[in-house]
Amino acid sequence: MERRRDGGDGESRGSSVIGVFKSVFLPQGYPESVSDDYLQYQFWDTVQAFSSSLSGTLATQASLKGVGVGNQEATVAAATVTWLLRDGAGMLGRILFAWQKGTKLDSEAKKWRLFADVLNDIALFMEILAPYFPACFTLIVCTAGIFKSIVGVAGGATRAALTVHQARRDNMADISAKDGSQETLVNLAGLLVSLILIPLVTDNPVLTLSIFFLFTALHLFANYKAVRSVVMETFNEARLSIVLQQYLRDKRILSPLEGNQREPVFLENPPHPSGNVSPCLYSFTLVLFKSYTFPYACIFFLKGHWEMVHESHKVMDTVFSPFLKSEYTHHSLILQTVRFILKHGFANIISRC
């Protein structure tokens, strides 16, 4: 009887520890309060954060060496000027990037998240190399500062977009706060490992670069797996094009999982309508809006399926078929029209009608 009681106490303590861990690091109501892809994304996000923390430690050590820490000939004033120039360049880069790309970060959250992490690794690599080029040290660290400022804008904005996706009970603040707790725990673990790592790599550039490339490879792999695990349930240009193209090919409507798996996660320049295609696109747009059927083609996710069209066969027969039978017979026409509409906005097109 005593053994059974002791076993029960052990299970109770184990359950209590797990309960405390969940309450500290997971959103309230998990897993019902978050999206189905939450756990997989957070796992890979944790791996990439740990790798980035260790790579950042190596870059910080190199930057401090570059500004003269440990060098008796270095001056405090010179180091301060270098740091101020780096911070100033980063501030300008932050403003310019937000101005140029701010509107793209919501709809292309996956691409910009991956872009931000690649750019962050480039910036860290530049900081590690900077001390070996003293004549260009200030220029290199300022450029790295600009890159890091872009990473801050893109990473923060896309994280916010992903938080909106993960929230299922209007709990975006809770998810964001718990994500911060998870990241803090990972950074603390990275700090402890760094205390062991730094004495080993000091004054050993070959080992420093070897470890940096190892953690960078892990960082990029984890980031790729993280963005690939996200199953967004709304349309952006890429996902809408993929689903439309599949429907036109075999009348099959892709599920959100299938659509996201086919979505490219690397930045690219999609083709835009130009030349002789533009008049046809404009005419096509007029017909779509005057037929009052196009809005049915753009409603969001509901009950596990893309609701691409309402009464889909009727819409395709009455709207798409006439254009597919004309001299502009090509699936890309419809895809280019969608890009045209998304690029210029519904309001602008309606005003032109």
Automatic annotation (TrEMBL):
The keyword Isomerase does not apply. One of its GO terms (cellular component) is membrane. The keyword Kinase does not apply. It comes from the Eukaryota. Residues 14-250 form the Protein root UVB sensitive/RUS domain. InterPro entries: RUS_fam, UVB_sens_RUS_dom. Keywords: Membrane, Transmembrane, Transmembrane helix. It is found in: Membrane. Signal peptide: none annotated. The chain crosses the membrane at residues 138-162, 183-201, 207-224. Belongs to the RUS1 family. PANTHER family: RUS FAMILY MEMBER 1, RUS1 FAMILY PROTEIN C16ORF58. This is RUS family member 1. The lineage of its organism: Eukaryota, Metazoa, Chordata, Craniata, Vertebrata.
